[in-house]
């Protein structure tokens, strides 16, 4: 492809010349090959297109996205599936696949004959023609009706025979539901000889693209081949997309490869990571109707490469150059936006990433473009003239809760928002880019407050450059996160395992993954999935939680062995052959031989696998054996790239296996079946109980063991056993032995595994425990903690740190006294106001102001707005606060104050509040199992007596009218102006006091130096002031406080300086 | 008790013909002044450190540029067609990889082993982190920065002797990944030097560091020997006549303090507690006794010789360089003599027209820690070549956030450049391109070595004096 010079900054000619140069520069950046610098024909675009001869060349394409459109060119409207993909060479391709038509099934009327099909077809055709409206109109509706033999997935058929069914092929995807749901399902078809029957329909609501993939054995992100001579390459005038090649092929000629062996490879995909900056007004969150987009930074990375190939930033107004990145400046915002669209088209990324782009960057850009009437902007997809639009959706999922989100039409590109990925896959204290980076990349990110952004923008070209550097960094971080977490590998493998397109993993819930597997398997086995009335089912039976053995709370200073059921729910489903297709209808029970079925603890009956293997257990078996294979391959593999793929694969397989159970239990899902899910959990409960009784009856003194074993706790899939042996090695030996013994009691493939020993172990309550984990008898691995909420945001850091330290002392040092001592010490220090302020900061996001009850952060935000509307937090900001001492009886929300304000005015902290409301509960929980009643000692006694409150500085209230009397620095006795520092009695100690003060100055200076140089290192800049206002950073308040403290201490010290000597 | 002063120097330092009667006469009236002053008149910690770098590069850029012009843009280079294009800012390097360019900037070294305050907050408990002498590693990255931007420096030139904060010139080419391939470095070089006066006779300056008066580490007897010797109360007539030529004594830091152990905190303990008040206030009392001893010691000297007292690590002074003079209230008796001056660290003094400049050791220790250099004299030379007393300040060395002016830029080359509190005595002569001649001097810690350094102002030669008391 020739280098299209699409981006033209600020129309001037002089600037244009510059662009030429810059493109040259990018040519060099973009070239993959070290030696390839000279060929100046590449710029931002993909590798130069090789000449393809359609009659001799097979094309191998990794597909990434699929959609369909209705071809209107011929007289008969026809659905065409479009596959977007990339070849090994890095060239992008789209295939128009024709010849695949939507269809569904319905039960054939009794005694229906092959010959009746034609009649059925024409009758249906007539009704369809009458009913079709608008877009559904077509010349022919029903293309074919065939008589086939299939059976329903739902319920075991005692006769075990396929039923006659009709396969109805229709012209357009939307005809499926028209015909199935509105006509056949409602008795609207009047068929001679049969009258108006109501038909049971099957598989009418399968998405057309998914149907296409299932029927062609096409999995997500997999490879397809268009064989030589079987496809037609379009010439540029016929192309309607922005990809490099476009071709037409008949569905039957397309070869789809299963993702295995050589087809596990990944093409050199292009990933665009971007970030925008907008200039907000003081005190309000940027509004696309008012506030301009001032910069867009973009990084393009080829998949698998560690260095990005394009780094550039678009800026509004001039900007000084940045070494290693291209700067394109615009005078007009509309031009900037439109140029970026041109840039995206030229870059032609397969994956779009960023941080919170779905809910901020992309909507903002689209809204802003609309406000500015930048008509050329919203064309970010790969189909020419297809406008990019967005709409709101709510995604509900049992795993992730309900989220409001946006969906974009952007054909052929996968939007992978790293915020979404991380919130789904990781549980963190905070999801700001800053704290995510601190967690995963181990570095603090410079955080420039949005009120400063506008100032930088309104400065000169150098301040704008500063902003651009910041923006570039932010644009690169999502890419680095993606690499570090291997998100793209993992999601691609998930897509390959479950067989749905990559993009659907982000845009849709969990259910579609299992549904895809279920449809695929059913098809192989001649089953049809019945249509269900979505969402109409009642919430279904509530089944009990899976706590089985009530915890025997306490602190165990002896090894506790833990036995786990490996993949408990999947293995129960397999062992008992629980499936839709094995469930016996209540009415059919008498017809089935009781020896051939299992009655579950809930009273439901499923036939045994000897009679008929369930689809679900087959799916599960395949998933788990594939996982075993992947893990085995992973061990052998040495290539890190392939290792990453395999690891992603085994993880995807595990997650998929576990979500099958959830699918059967999802009441608003595609095919809920409470009989299955309730049976699974009740089996689980039963097994835990059985394990408990087996352990407690086997491992007894009576049976020759040194001591009686006790099960102290049993959770969903694990039991904790106290064997009453003194050492880890023996406990491990017994644990392994017990696991093997008990496994034999259960049906295959249920397996009880011995995994770990906790020693010591602190069992606080249900789902709340902590222990030192051992997997080998020589050395412990780590502290394992469940349910002790040290990560919650509405706790201050002090809590997390104290709890962690206590656990460390209790579990690793086994120093109960030390932990108590430490706690007391912290409490004493808290009351004496010696705790670092940043440890006490709590923060909450300010969302839309519709709180009914007064909340501290909301009240504080209002207070801050009164003080200074410019710097006050606005909607969407997180408001950090500390609780200060207020009037007697004041509510907590009235006592919240801005930490910076507290530092400046030396406000006293409400230490009692922190003790009572923050520290007490978590600490009590930890210490109660150990100290019992005596826990109270921690919160009262000698160490709580000394309380120090700082005096508020500055003249406020009545102090404004008072004149301060100098007091002796040592004994606080009033002294005269002439005495200055000390009273006559203390004068002898002058040197001592001076040294003391000097010491604190020295320490403060040391702190000042280390904190502020650290900030310089983070912001990567020595010659400019640090602008960072990241409240997430642990040193943010400390560095402010140290400045304040130095000047206070120096003031005192200065009183010595004029001492006469 | 047998005492002895060992003379490790050549005997010709001790003119045999000289017979001086007690109380001895000090060699002639000696003029002393402070050519460069480190006394701070303000204490504004509201500023950030960027100003230091700004002031530094503003001062040194013209010097480096001149040097680059001379070294790289001379006729020879022109004849060879090897003349780089001078860029006034890093940004102006633009993006052309073909241009052979040179530019000046401040070095920043990205180092894996550099201690990080944030790490204190990292949750993991660190198991016994070793305190390393050198924090350099192979993965260190060298960068060059100025007001306009930053660029990574690559190339095969061994750069590990460089440290953050040096202002240098580089010559080379941009590479396509945006880094700058360095072919050659150019340091600011040694500033001009005032001419060395010709002295008619030997005059000595004694530099002692790490006396640690009143501390267990210091042998009291040794200290007394030193005091007696300096006051001319000790030794043979030769010794006394030698002592009579000592015109000034500089105590280069560590007068009462001890170096503190690096790791104060229990490892793994998070810094929950605000560091402010708690900080070993009790130790204040510990230091009072040594201060009294010091007061006595100084008073003893004060009647016979001029003494400059510099603060150093562990002394009751502030932390950031330049450390300010010890407060007179700490030395009530000695401070009343006008022969005793409490001075800053670093300290610059001109004695009989000979300029001395030096520190209590922090600058050199830090350079050694963050580079591959081993010898304190090499560090001194690097500092001199970079035209800066403490380039690593403020990055890894505490330093006052200067505003207008970076006071550590060396304005004129001293004749003696010393560093206190080192392991051993060593010295060598450094000669600059413009015939600047500097005595680089590493002064050992007295408490551990019993040695002080003695400089002959006439010849600019130095030798150690060793005090040892054998029971």
Please describe the structure with a list of short key phrases separated by commas or semicolons.
heterodimer, A: alpha+beta, 7-stranded mixed beta sheet, 34 strands, globular, B: 7-stranded mixed beta sheet, 8 helices, disordered N terminus
Descriptive notes:
Chain A is of the alpha+beta class and 1061 residues long. Chain A is 36% helix and 19% strand. Chain A has 25 helices and 34 strands. In chain A, the strands form 8 sheets. Chain A has a 7-stranded mixed beta sheet. In chain A, strands 23, 24, 27, 28, 29, 30 and 31 form a 7-stranded antiparallel beta sheet that branches. Chain A has a 6-stranded mixed beta sheet with strand order 17-16-15-14-18-21, with helices on both faces. The longest helix of chain A has 30 residues, at 990-1019. Chain A is globular and about 120 Å long. Chain A starts with 12 loop residues before the first helix and ends with a helix. Mean pLDDT of chain A is 82; it is low at 1-42 and 535-544. Chain B is α/β, with parallel strands linked by helices. Chain B contains 8 helices and 19 strands. In chain B, the strands form 3 sheets. Chain B has a 7-stranded mixed beta sheet. In chain B, strands 2-13-14-15-17-16 form a 6-stranded mixed beta sheet. In chain B, strand 18 (451-456) and strand 19 (461-470) form a beta hairpin. The longest helix of chain B has 23 residues, at 50-72. The radius of gyration of chain B is 24 Å and the shape is elongated. The termini of chain B are close together. Mean pLDDT of chain B is 79; it is low at 1-24, 123-130, 261-270 and 272-281. At the A-B interface, helix 1, helix 10, helix 19, helix 24 and helix 25 of A face helix 1 and helix 5 of B.
